[in-house]
Amino acid sequence: MRATTLGHRHQATRRERRAIAAMYAGLGLTVLGTAAPYVDLATGHLLADHIRAGYPTYTDARIDSAVTTYLVLLSAIGALGVLAWLWTIRAVKAGRRWAQTGSTVMFALGTGAGLTGLLTKDTSGATGLPSALGWAGMAPCLAGLVAVALLWIRPRSV
Q1: How far is CA 62 from CA 52, 57, 58, 127, in A?
Q2: Is 121 helix (H, G, I), strand (E, B) or coil?
Q3: In terms of pTM, does the model score above 0.85?
Q4: What is the mean pLDDT of each run of 10 residues along the chain (158 residues)?
């Protein structure tokens, strides 16, 4: 990546433009993944049913409390994800020297958060999130992988 100096605008390479497109896709997937638990709450109640199956003695009030806790947690993670996408997109567009490394770190953190939501088991022995919501949290990671790969691929010499 090229460093920019004051007064000089960075002209993104074709590879960087593709990486930025993948990042925008990841941003969109992050927004959709963050909205998914709210859509579920309004329609299917998958999360509430998952909690009820794992904790059959919970009252409806306790299940509602657990769902609310998950919504707050997933919203916070989603908001951090949106900020990370915007930060890395801006860094790549500006041609910052550290954009490759910063994007890779954000990818690793996002993948770690996604895997935590997908795989972590709670005290019932089941995963904390139903698999559909866990996979929704992993979807942005695919776009992140594509973006990071594009940023690290060296251009061919002609």
Answers
A1: 10, 10, 6, 18
A2: strand
A3: yes
A4: 48 88 98 97 94 95 96 97 98 94 97 96 92 96 97 77
